[in-house]
Amino acid sequence: MIPREPAELVARAREGSRTALARLLTYVESGGSAQLATAALAYQAPSPYVIGITGPPGAGKSTLTDQLITTALAKGSFDGMDAFDEVGVLCIDPSSPFTGGAILGDRIRMQDHATNEHVFIRSMATRGHLGGLSLAVPDAVRVLGAANFRLVLVETVGVGQMEVEIASAADTTIVVTNPGWGDAMQASKAGLLEVADIFVINKADRAGVAETRRDLEQMLDLGGEKEWRPLVLETVATTNAGTEELWEAIVAHRTFIEHGRLDEHRRTRMRAELDKVITAMVRSRIGALAHGAAYEDQIDALLSGTTDPYRAAETLLSES
Amino acid sequence: MIPREPAELVARAREGSRTALARLLTYVESGGSAQLATAALAYQAPSPYVIGITGPPGAGKSTLTDQLITTALAKGSFDGMDAFDEVGVLCIDPSSPFTGGAILGDRIRMQDHATNEHVFIRSMATRGHLGGLSLAVPDAVRVLGAANFRLVLVETVGVGQMEVEIASAADTTIVVTNPGWGDAMQASKAGLLEVADIFVINKADRAGVAETRRDLEQMLDLGGEKEWRPLVLETVATTNAGTEELWEAIVAHRTFIEHGRLDEHRRTRMRAELDKVITAMVRSRIGALAHGAAYEDQIDALLSGTTDPYRAAETLLSES
């Protein structure tokens, strides 16, 4: 029998039970008291090293993630340090903003790893977590940490603000593009330039690699001098070309941030997460406001043009 | 001299002053007391009819918007009712989530209309509005309403959650696709299926129209029966082909929602807007929390693993 208590589940997950781990992640997705109890335990363990992978649909992220899993397990450590023999993978499929549902992506290519006991793959969806995926994903990362995972890949599909936000809450963020993909403006719009530590031009056996590289480098030039200038690599994920170089780039970036910057990096990340929790919590508390007569009165006033949303909100908040 | 007082600016804008209107919209973008005063006035006027246009970059939204402006002005009314002789256009360029900046899109194709006194075009960016673009855009629509505009087009670039949210807060929402664009999953992910009243397959002179139409119709079939089944139209915006049919579809949708549904539709929209204002306001109030010693203590506790973000947030909120 698989236990239901988060503390027992964490103990089991730490011993290697995938069923226990899966249940904990379901708690995280579902919200409520089980999620809070799980978080209380998960945040006691150190965070794994997190590699975020994002990019537009069809860029080849899944295949590249596949290759990274294989490479990481073959290496077994970062440059000889911090050994790991397991890789956790969180696949984030953005929920529809209207149904709250999620459609699982095509994970077929990852099925090679599905039966590999050293790899744990999970597609995440929001099912009730207070703050949606942008809070559920960091919680899930910490749950994997509590289950002894030292390396976690977070793959997000899409380049919207939320996907970018999730992917960028990583220690090393990889943005996957393709030859001919977009122009300077497209990348800037989505904030990808600001979050990428490594750009990968995947499908680099196709025409247009030089132009895409030139565009990216020009954008990086415009971005001014930074301590870490994002690397631009070329891969052909389907043939494994460039994966070794990508792993080396990840190790290089990790070495860079470990030199005094990892603590600061994680402090910044923790602030962002705490702020999101505070906002979600307050939002949930004031949700009750939206079901009373006073609220309906304000909506009526809004529709008749006798107030505006700012005065209406002030009125409701001062009465609550 | 252009006045600075919102009340005077609204009076001028109502008389046709574009400079006054532009300043009011800058107030809306910038937030603060001028924005609040502007909103208080703007929400007294009835809302214009809002047509939202969204879709991925490069789908041809700007050209299609161009054609819609020309067609709308040539018609001068919806099916003979509710005459208008001006069209307001808000172009929403998503901000980078990290710099807070915005890059204005290529508005060159709209320059034909830039000197047309019957058309008012504005690219919007967030500059300090409490709730970002998702609140600034509805405010801007109401400001246009206060300036006597009866028809407003809101064009958003991109298919991220925020862009979809902004475009779908319209009376009629048009989603622009291209032949060969994505598959069933792509559209579902972004929530486009749920928000579209009309799908436009633009660039319909290219190969793949039948497949794209079939995919869209299949997805709509899967969506179950609805009172309004989204129409699927084909256009070639560069040659104006299909624009007349698009206008007719807009009129048909407007007639549909006017039959008892417009009030309900706008009530729902008003609720969504009020909820966003409440959340933004509370968030702004608790922002001060993030600058005190108590907050830093909680961050330290988080980094040392002695608390989790949920307990930390509870602690801070109970102390505030």
Q: Could you explain how this protein is built, in words?
A:
The structure is a homodimer of 320-residue chains. Chain A has 320 residues and is an alpha/beta fold. Chain A folds into 3 domains: 1-44, no CATH class; 46-261, P-loop containing nucleotide triphosphate hydrolases (Rossmann fold), CATH 3.40.50; 276-319, no CATH class. In chain A, 50% of the residues lie in helices and 12% in strands. The model of chain A is unreliable at 95-109 (pLDDT under 50). Chains A and B meet through helix 3, helix 7, helix 8, helix 9 and helix 12 of A and helix 3, helix 7, helix 8, helix 9 and helix 12 of B.
Which range does the strand content of chain A fall in?
5-15%
Please give the alpha-carbon distance between the first and last residues of chain A: 46 Å
CATH superfamily of the largest domain in chain A: P-loop containing nucleotide triphosphate hydrolases
Largest interface: A-B, 74 and 72 residues
Largest sheet, strands/sense/barrel of chain A: 7 strands, parallel
H/E element order of chain A: HHHEHEHEHEHEHHEHEHHHH
Low-confidence stretches of chain A: 95-109
User: How many domain units of chain A?
Assistant: 3
* CATH-defined fold name of the largest domain in chain A: Rossmann fold
Principal-axis shape of chain A equals: globular
- Supply the number of helical segments of chain A: 14
For the biggest β-sheet of chain A, the strand order reads 3-2-4-1-5-6-7
Question: How many strand segments of chain A?
Answer: 7
CATH secondary-structure class of the largest domain in chain A: Alpha Beta
User: Rg of chain A from C-alpha positions?
Assistant: 22 Å
User: What's the helical proportion of residues of chain A?
Assistant: 40-55%
Label the CATH architecture of the largest domain in chain A.
3-Layer(aba) Sandwich
| Oligomeric form | homodimer
Mean pLDDT of chain A: 84
